[in-house]
């Protein structure tokens, strides 16, 4: 149960980071989530669960940053690969960034993910873990069902349209009115 809520928390935090980043760089794609309804970026949640499970006990901050950077980047590569191959969409493209690999990952963001994951493990996780552990099983079940329903409709939409911008309800509504 705690791992589900950890995934949700960091996916939501990742959505917030994506929105800030999009604003800062004036990104063309303003929709910065990966679900139709829920404001979540699952690559962040999956990456942090991997870091916490595999490197969370690391003593040194810099070792944790190194392991976190490697784990987060590996998750980012895998998630991008699956989005591209299974859904026919690209949520990000690092081809314009130095030292990218197949547009899926790049060195500058690997460094950023390493530092952010180490900070999250040291500063954020100790504070949120007790709160996440106290969430009731009923709330967890409701959240799981909501996530499953949103996942189902999101996958259907992306497989049919191959357009990530339709994940914004405003864009989806405009598209539906054109039909």
TrEMBL record:
Entry annotated with the keyword Transmembrane helix: yes
InterPro entries on file: CmpB_TMEM229
Record-annotated membrane-spanning stretches: 6-23, 35-55, 61-83, 104-124, 139-158
Keywords linked to the UniProt accession: Membrane, Plasmid, Transmembrane, Transmembrane helix
Domain of life: Bacteria
Protein name: ABC transporter permease
Species per Swiss-Prot/TrEMBL record: Vescimonas fastidiosa
């Amino acid at each position: 149960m705690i791992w589900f809520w950890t995934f949700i928390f960091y996916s939501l935090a990742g959505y917030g980071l994506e929105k800030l980043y999009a604003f800062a760089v004036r990104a063309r794609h303003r929709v910065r989530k990966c679900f139709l309804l829920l404001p979540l970026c699952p690559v962040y949640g999956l990456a942090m669960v991997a870091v916490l499970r595999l490197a969370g006990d690391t003593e040194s901050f810099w070792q944790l940053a190194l392991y976190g950077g490697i784990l987060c980047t590996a998750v980012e590569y895998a998630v991008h690969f699956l989005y591209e191959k299974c859904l026919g969409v690209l949520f990000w493209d690092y081809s314009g960034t130095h030292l990218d690999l197949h547009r899926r990952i790049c060195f500058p963001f690997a460094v950023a993910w390493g530092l952010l994951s180490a900070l999250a493990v040291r500063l954020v996780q100790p504070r949120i873990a007790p709160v996440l552990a106290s969430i009731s099983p009923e709330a967890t079940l409701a959240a799981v069902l909501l996530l499953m329903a949103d996942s189902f409709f999101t996958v259907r939409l992306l497989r049919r349209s191959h357009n990530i911008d339709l994940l914004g309800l405003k864009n989806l509504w405009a598209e539906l009115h054109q039909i």
